[in-house]
Amino acid sequence: MREMQRVTVVNNSPEFLEMMADVLHDAHYPTTVIDGDGDNTRELIEAAEPEILIIDLRLGSEGLRGMDIVRWARQHPQLSMVPTIICTGDRLGIEEVQEELDSLRRITVLMKPFEIDELYAALRKLTPA
Prior knowledge:
This protein is an alpha/beta fold. Helices cover 43% and strands 19% of the residues. It has a single domain (7-126), classed as 3-Layer(aba) Sandwich (Rossmann fold), CATH 3.40.50.
């Protein structure tokens, strides 16, 4: 069996984080979950050294903070090429940033609610064997 890549999930829902940790653990992905509403989210992401980043588009109620983190990661020397899944139920928010997303490499969108197989397919799409 090949070694699975380290996944970091950033979201502000404890229930979602717990569910993702369980699902990814079942698929043998080493996983770190981060409450994205904290002031130290960026530091926690750096410390996790993700090989795959899964992030909610909106963290909390103040705008597109998840997208702000994606922009930051794309400028970060160690994170700029990390494959990223934007996981959201915010269709309008995705439409607002779709052109920008289309210009970025190694990013895919997974709309909530999603099936577990859709998550695994998104992971495979970003991390070919």
